């Protein structure tokens, strides 16, 4: 099955700093999503991005499908950005999303 | 509009006991999922239901059963709990396809099997 690797596993930032999280996947995908899990465990969709670039406020994501990676950019980080960021990939129907192990982000004030 | 509701939030079981995790969504979604989350491993799909009346295995179905009782409810049953099933369990439902696809997660159930 598809393998998903995320890096770095852990990241500590000072408030206001920028960061880039990476997701590598082992096979062609038609579905790639980024999620944020806050420190209380709640999971929220950030992006559906099997290819191309999207932006939502301070967050943006780029997927280069031909090279099998995706990047999540966080600019001007805030303490509320802390949590775990997951990349998940799957087929076009998305019924079997495979999650990476996540990147734990801690933003210090 | 409560979204996806899971019960219970916490549960402690002894090895061999059985229990059912309940999940309900009020968004009229067809697809529902059960995941488990273990430290350092992300979320792994246990079972899913693409529509009312259908269920399919995910990555780690062994030791679990599911029931899609109706469009709203999707329950997960552990018939004989084992310590390896200690985990945080998430239920989710999905709306849309392709670029309109979005998963909605419940708040999770922390299960400890002693």
- Could you name the ranges of chain A where pLDDT drops below 50 across 5 or more consecutive residues? none
Which assembly state applies to the chains in this document? heterodimer
Largest interface: A-B, 24 and 27 residues
CA-atom Rg of chain A in angstroms: 13 Å
How many strands, which pairing sense, and closed or not: the largest β-sheet of chain B? Answer: 7 strands, mixed
Radius of gyration of chain B, taken over Cα atoms and rounded to an integer in Å: 13 Å
Supply the helix-strand structural class of chain A.
mainly beta
Strand content of chain A: over 45%
Largest sheet of chain A: 6 strands, mixed
- Regions with little confidence, pLDDT below 50 for 5+ residues of chain B: none
State the share of residues found in helices of chain B, binned by percent. under 10%
- Outline of chain B, from the CA principal axes? globular
Straight-line N-to-C gap of chain B: 36 Å
**What string, H for helix and E for strand, traces the elements of chain A in order?**
EEEEEEEEEEE
Gross geometry of chain A: globular
């Amino acid at each position: 099955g598809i393998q998903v690797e995320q890096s770095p596993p852990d990241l500590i930032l000072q408030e206001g700093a920028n960061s880039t999280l990476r997701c590598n996947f082992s096979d062609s995908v038609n579905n790639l999503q980024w999620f944020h899990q806050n420190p209380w465990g709640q999971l929220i969709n950030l992006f559906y991005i099997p290819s191309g670039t999207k932006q939502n406020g301070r967050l943006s994501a780029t997927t280069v499908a031909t090279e099998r990676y995706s990047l999540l950019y966080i600019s001007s980080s805030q303490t509320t950005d802390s949590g775990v960021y997951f990349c998940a990939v799957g087929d076009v129907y998305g019924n079997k999303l495979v999650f990476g192990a996540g990147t734990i982000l801690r933003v210090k004030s | 509009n409560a979204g996806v509701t899971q019960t219970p939030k916490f549960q402690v079981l002894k090895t061999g006991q059985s229990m059912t995790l309940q999940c309900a969504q009020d968004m009229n979604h067809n697809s529902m999922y059960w995941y488990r989350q273990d430290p350092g491993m992300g979320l792994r799909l246990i079972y899913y239901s693409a529509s009312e009346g259908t269920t399919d295995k995910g990555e780690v179905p062994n030791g679990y059963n599911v029931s899609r009782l109706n469009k709203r409810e999707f329950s997960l049953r552990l018939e004989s709990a084992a310590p390896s099933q200690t985990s945080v369990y998430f239920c989710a439902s999905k709306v849309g396809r392709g670029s309109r696809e979005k998963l909605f997660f419940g708040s999770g159930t922390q299960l400890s099997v002693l």
